[in-house]
Design goal:
Distance between the termini: 76 Å
CATH superfamily of the largest domain: Histidine kinase-like ATPase, C-terminal domain
Protein name: DNA mismatch repair protein MutL
Bound molecules: adenosine-5'-diphosphate, magnesium ion
Strand order of the largest sheet: 5-4-3-6-2-1-7-8
Family: Belongs to the DNA mismatch repair MutL/HexB family.
Strand content: 25-35%
GO molecular function: ATP binding; ATP hydrolysis activity; ATP-dependent DNA damage sensor activity; mismatched DNA binding
CATH class of the largest domain: Alpha Beta
Radius of gyration: 21 Å
Number of domains: 2
Largest sheet: 8 strands, mixed
Structural class: alpha+beta
Keywords: DNA damage, DNA repair
CATH topology of the largest domain: Heat Shock Protein 90
Order of helices and strands: HHEEHHEEEEHHEEHHEEEEEHEEEEH
Organism: Piscibacillus halophilus
Length: 338
């Protein structure tokens, strides 16, 4: 008698959820990515107890058609890629078709959605099981409520940190998402209190101001560089404004915020002697490139990427930072007004 069994779907979804949904902030990230991919112009986030009790994301995006609602919860079911060719030219934030399957397998989820031209749908999914699907009138857009995250995976629940820590992770996620999409209006509430909003008018400096405050925004310098393969834009802080850790360096590739030690190093090398030892700058760097030049299929959380011409990008980033800082120091202080 053989010993190998094919695991049932609900169990394999739970296993996959371990990689995709590490903590409430991962749910927020995945839901926001879906709202961005659905061409939303406005996204509202409502949290209760740092998302441990409830995470609600509402958008005014494309919505999901009634016949697609059930499929949206299947694993590896996506409207964003259809073949291998697409996988190497991903233009959307999502493409793995895993998030809704994973999130709904470890929470109690409600989906309300409408494409605007037909009656909307409401679905309730608890622990991966669809409890109900019914018609729902609603204006165009999608609302997803994730309650009692990890209620059926006690080990994961135990591993979560304090409300304060989890809220910190969520705030960082929303900040980076807003910095990546200055054209989208974000609004965030925690326990009924407004934490944060962005105007959604495409002005990155205004988003920086909402997140880091007016003083820092006034101390940022514009960075811009166009090469054959890469277009770099964004803001870097004057060297006198530094921080004690790297979390204030935001790297954005084609609208996706990423973590990348190589680009971090390029920035720090560009600052070179301008930075005191152990201090880090505040940077928001947007890098646009042909999707073919960046592989986003490295890890389920999609924040790690691989660049096919890493050295070239490293040099361009380093040089761009260096140039901005040196132009700045050539101008006698007091002459240049922001
Ligand atoms: P992926 O984003 O990788 O495609 P998800 O599991 O996150 O996978 O979502 C599955 C599908 O559900 C998406 O491909 C999309 O078609 C649909 N979807 C999810 N969230 C939204 C949303 N907010 N607005 C419109 N469609 C959505
Ligand atoms: Mg997704």
């Amino acid at each position: 008698m053989g010993k190998i069994v094919q695991l049932p779907d609900d169990l394999s979804n739970k296993i996959a959820a371990g990689e995709v949904v590490e903590r409430p902030a991962s749910v927020v990230k995945e839901l926001l990515e879906n709202s961005v991919d659905a061409n939303s112009q406005w996204i509202k986030i409502e949290l209760l107890e740092a998302g441990l009790r409830s995470i609600k994301v509402i958008d005014d995006g494309d919505g999901i058609e009634p016949e697609d609602c059930e499929k949206a919860f299947f694993r590896h079911a996506t409207s964003k890629i259809i073949d291998e060719f697409d996988l190497f030219r991903v233009k959307t934030l999502g493409f793995r078709g895993e998030a809704l399957a994973s999130i709904s397998s470890v929470s109690q989820l409600t989906l309300r959605t409408s494409t605007g031209d037909q009656t909307g749908t409401e679905m309730i999914v608890h622990g991966g099981e669809i409890l109900s699907q019914q018609k729902h009138t609603k204006r165009k857009g999608t609302e997803i409520i994730v309650e009692n995250l990890f209620y059926n995976t006690p080990a994961r629940l135990k591993y979560l940190k304090t409300i304060h820590t989890e809220l910190g992770h969520i705030t960082e996620t929303i900040n980076k998402m807003a910095l990546s999409h200055p054209d989208i209006r974000f609004e965030c509430y925690h326990n009924g209190k407004r934490m944060f909003f962005t105007p959604g008018n495409g002005n990155l400096l205004q988003v920086i101001q909402q997140i880091y405050g007016k003083k820092i925004a006034q101390n940022m310098m514009k960075i811009e560089n166009d090469s054959l393969d890469y277009k770099i834009t964004g803001y870097i802080a004057k060297p006198e404004t530094t921080r004690s850790n790297r979390t204030f360096i935001s790297l954005i590739v084609n609208g996706r915020f990423i973590k990348n030690p190589v680009i971090n190093k390029a920035i720090l090398d560009g600052y070179h002697t301008f930075l005191p030892i152990g201090r880090y700058p505040i940077v928001v760097l947007q890098m646009e490139m042909d999707p073919y030049l960046v592989d986003v299929n490295v890890h389920p959380a999609k924040t790690e990427v691989r660049f096919s011409k890493e050295k070239e990008l490293f040099d361009i980033v380093k040089q761009s930072v260096y140039d901005v800082l040196h132009q700045q120091t050539l101008i006698p202080s007091g002459v240049k007004k922001e």
